[in-house]
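All the exercises in this workshop are built on plain-text protein records. The record below serves as our worked example for the rest of this section.
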Amino acid sequence: MNKRQDIELLRVISAFGIVWFHLGAVGRDIAYSGLIVFLVLSLYLSAQSTRVPKNVMDRAKRLLVPWIVWFVIYGAINLARHKPLIPLDNGIIFGILTGPSIHLWFMPFIFFTLFAFDWLRDHITPRIIAYASAASAILIFIMASDWRPWSLKLGAPIAQYAHAVNGILIGVFLANYYALPSPARSALLLIILALAAYLSILPMPGIGVPYLLGVSVSAAVLLFNRTLPARINFNWLSECALGIYLIHPLCFMIISHTKLVSELGMPFVVFFASSVSVILLKRIAPSVSKYAM
């Protein structure tokens, strides 16, 4: 089946947003919406996939093996810079799950999330999954003022997990959107967007604006198929999205050391360098790249 190029473009944009956010440049709260899109797409594309077989070993090869590879790479960098291998503020288990570079929290998290979602799809009807995920997302938004400060106080990776849960739930909801009757699904989506809009005006950075933008853009693309001209193809770059996510902190370390790039230009330069690095690795050493990204 041909890939929808509007979704592939969205994957690229979300990867750029994550790079932008991690670099701490101006507008990072807007850029954080890239993570929300990344989460929504992960669940949506998993639900749409017809690849067989899909089992725990497939997931492990795709997500845990690259996680281990980059865990070693960033861990070696930490040791070379006389830093702790992993953060131990919350104990060794959470330290491992956080990883030697904070962005690595995503890999084991999404592995277990997708595994759980596959199990749910085998045991629960799409309609029940859609209602349950939407209702849970709404409840989490309503209780944001309670769990957000608590999660931030606990630190990584709890803060990241707590923030990501709603992106996962909304991704599941959108993946099963058309299993619901039209009035119900539209009402649930509007409630989710309205709550995100309300949270965006509260003094709670990282919740309202990222979710409002991330969910709005995701829903607009996923639920309203926009056919792009046949000549437009983003596959070559969208297939590098996970690799870009994994390698961009390393590219940032190298580029920032040169002190040649301004703060405003850094996200663009790092994204470009990460993209080129992944593309070259895939072409020059495909046997290596399949384990690393």
Notes: Residues 43 and 100 are 26 Å apart (CA to CA). The radius of gyration is 19 Å.
